Predict the 3D structure of the following.
Amino acid sequence: MPSHSPIYLLQYFLRKPSNQFFLSIAIRSFAIGMVVIFEPIYLYFYFGKSLSLTLLFFAANYGLFAVLSVFGGRIMSKVGFDWAMFISHFFFFFYYLLLNFIDFSLFFIGLAIITRAIGMTLFWPSYHTDFIRFSRENHRGTAVGIMNIFTIIPTILSPVIGGLILSKLGYPGLFASVLTVLLASAIPLFFNHEKHEIYSDTFKQAWSRVFKKENRRTSLAFGCVAVEGTIAFIFWPIFMAVSMFGFIAMGSLTSFALFVAALFSFYMGKVSDTNNRAKLLNIGALLTSVSWILKYFVITPFTALLAHSFYKLCRTSVAIPFQTFFYEKAALKKHEADEFVIYREIVLNISRFFSLIFLAGLFLIFPKINLSFILAAIISFGFVFLGKPPKFLRRFKKL
């Protein structure tokens, strides 16, 4: 029957704005998942195994993103959430295209930094603000859990697929595959009725939010999650490469760890809608810290599998209550939710910028990559400042 055709079912599914959003994110996550653990490795080898130069590349990218965040808010208010996210895909497309040709000219390095920063500037403010607007009060924890499932499930197999493509076709084949799927992720957005948000902050007003006394604890929490996440994104893949793990092994252990996280996500989302969210955040932060210490002692692919799976489980247990706190804080701002999102992006990326510059200098002196895991273990405790910190941290309540 025509009414039961795949096209009809897809159109019916896409009538709901949240389904359009989740499907687009799922396809995008699959695309990025194929390359995300191999991207830092690619740049690490391009820079002649110089960890410091690799870190400076990403530092420049995040620093530029912090500066451009305000313009991202203005563009979002002009073209709407979906168009901003759609346009961002073309910048990510050119970013991976430029990475494929960086051997030809140093000019492509600078251009790659700029295109990635613009892509993130267009995508992330719209992504977060859109989610805030359609997620319901008192059910945001569940919505965050569902969002994590839609983000994680497509990426369970993508690292393995990326590793297979990389081992057979090299980076050109991998980048071509990512580009194709990335553009496909924009299709569900065309089924949506465009939504707009009026972004009113000037550049000065947006940056002044970072230094306001009432935002100090929130800024500290955002800064800590940014630094810890950056160590996971850059240092862990490079550590595996330096430890001589093969591409397929890296993809497989990453996929298994994501599978563990996916099983846990929906449950954590449900629990995060209860009054125990702050307690869950504190426990999750402690466990995440422990998981980083375990990663310090990784030697073989099997120990990497165990340590990374435990990390993903712990990181999910802290990420969902953390994200729920963030979205609820933003929703309470009502018409200023987008301003709060941009403030968050500034804090995240300026924290990444300064921490990567510091680490680039540190690793010129102490070139042991897994030292960064100890830093991540310490930084993980800072997540608790977005909720209700445990008693031994209450002395920081005046921050």
